[in-house]
From TrEMBL:
Protein name, UniProt field: D-isomer specific 2-hydroxyacid dehydrogenase NAD-binding domain-containing protein
Homology family: Belongs to the D-isomer specific 2-hydroxyacid dehydrogenase family.
GO MF terms, alphabetically ordered: D-lactate dehydrogenase (NAD+) activity; NAD binding
Lineage: Bacteria, Pseudomonadati, Planctomycetota, Planctomycetia, Planctomycetales
SUPFAM superfamilies in the record: NAD(P)-binding Rossmann-fold domains (SSF51735)
Length: 212
């Protein structure tokens, strides 16, 4: 869709090179089975995809979910046609997607990241894209996004050469960390924050409000 949209803006209405694929019947890998990862897995099963999920501590809802199989990270990396990241950034998950794991992904894999930018080694991703091994990437986050995302750089220009290179790929779609930016999500965030503060102030700390 991104490539087609770009072409139409240039008044190019041809279909050459725009053949896509159905999600139905594909294998979708979901890394992280928290609230969002679990919802994403459920949506993918609704499209008729086979879902592989990995999490060191998988959610109870994901376990036994029809169409979802819990597996190892390495099997998920090697077997998935689409891989979506839904995990927090920790020392263990920093550059979880690195050159080695990118090389073991299926040719043409689609990589999605709406979690944290540093989950992906961006320079390694660029090399995999240049080699044609990665079919495409959809990124709402970037590992060096601070000072860039949420700002208007249209006049000052972009000083980050890595991001500038990433933006040149026609099969890469980048948004500026805005997956949360809906009226409903903002209302939900505010409600959960107030609920957590209330429970903290009354000594009833919810699982979401606990400080680890």
């Amino acid at each position: 869709m991104h490539r087609a949209w770009q072409r139409v803006r240039d008044l190019n209405f041809s279909l050459d090179g725009l053949t896509g694929f159905d999600v139905h019947g594909k294998t979708v890998g979901v890394i992280g089975t928290g609230r969002i990862g679990t919802i994403f897995a459920r949506i993918m099963t609704g499209f008729g995809a086979k879902v592989l999920a990995y999490d060191p501590q998988p959610s109870a809802e994901t376990q036994g979910m029809p169409g979802v199989s819990l597996t190892s990270l390495e099997e998920l990396i090697e077997q998935s046609d689409i891989i979506s990241l839904h995990c927090p950034l920790t020392e263990q998950t920093r550059h979880l997607i690195n050159a080695d794991r990118l090389s073991r992904m299926r040719p043409g894999v689609i990589l999605l990241n709406t979690s944290r930018g540093r989950l992906i080694d961006t320079k390694a991703l660029i090399q995999a894209l240049k080699a044609g091994h990665i079919g495409g990437a959809g990124l709402d986050v970037y590992e060096e996004e601070e000072g860039i995302f949420f700002a208007d750089c249209s006049e000052s220009g972009l000083q980050d050469d890595v991001l500038a290179r990433l933006l040149t790929f026609p099969n890469v779609l980048i948004t500026s960390h805005q997956a949360f930016l809906t009226h409903e999500a903002l209302h939900d965030i505010a409600t959960r924050t107030l609920q957590s503060l209330l429970e903290f102030s009354t000594g009833r700390i919810s699982a979401e409000a606990q400080l680890v």
